[in-house]
Amino acid sequence: MISNITFELLNKYYNINKKSVLEISKKLKCSQGRVNYWLDRYRIEKRSISEAIYIKNNPKGDPFKFTSPKNIEEAKLFGLGLGLYWGEGNKANKNTVRIGNSDPALLRRFIEFLEKFFKINKTDLKFHLHIFTDIDLNEAKSFWIRELRIKESQMYKPTITKSGSLGTYRNKSKYGVLTIYYGNTKLRDTIIRMLPL
């Protein structure tokens, strides 16, 4: 058991290697209370619960990396992606990047935006389909899988709403509305900070 934990050791485990208090206590064969005592003694700022959860869910670090546009064409795509999220995205949710629409071309461009400038892995995206009872579910799923070149395993259980008086909206959503989900708090916050709000 280590009675006196050095600053260098604690800084290495907690700040550099991003180990939790529990993980450090096990490694050093001491109590969590002792680890917390030395963190406080050295005035090492404790992580918030949300930050600790993020690190636990992303042990290898951020699953994305921002890259700035390098030319006019990339700048146009970047501006388009931000505009789509500003206009169509769900900005209220603090844990995921979400954008829903009935136009596959629009969603393809947003995916391209995420892949190009944030280097996300497309297979990490999830999708939720919302259709009405007078739309064929299998046909709608096949349409989106084909149009966005995604796998069925990436799709959540769909929401099916009883058809009513749809008006002209029905003509715009022949295959329902699809929402893209990318679950990462930091990426969501990064994009929000880029918006001219």
Describe it.
The longest helix is centred in the middle third of the chain and has 17 residues, at 72-88. It is built from 9 helices and 4 strands. Helix 2 (21-28) packs across helix 3 (32-41) and helix 5 crosses helix 6. The protein folds into 2 domains: 7-57, no CATH class; 72-194, 2-Layer Sandwich (60s Ribosomal Protein L30, Chain: A). The protein is elongated, with a radius of gyration of 22 Å. By secondary structure, it is of the alpha+beta class. The model has no long low-confidence stretch (mean pLDDT 90). Helix 7 links the parallel strand 2 and strand 3.
Describe the structure concisely.
By secondary structure, the protein is of the alpha+beta class. The protein has 9 helices and 4 strands, in the order αααααβαβαβαβα. The termini are far apart.
Strand line-up in the sheet with most strands: 1-4-2-3
Query: Structural class, judged by helices and strands?
Result: alpha+beta
Give start-end ranges of low-pLDDT stretches: none
How many separate helices? 9
Order of helices and strands: HHHHHEHEHEHEH
Produce the secondary structure layout.
Layout: H1 7-16, H2 21-28, H3 32-41, H4 49-57, H5 72-88, E1 97-101, H6 104-118, E2 126-132, H7 137-148, E3 159-161, H8 169-172, E4 177-182, H9 185-194
Key phrases:
197 residues; alpha+beta; 60s Ribosomal Protein L30, Chain: A; 4-stranded mixed β-sheet
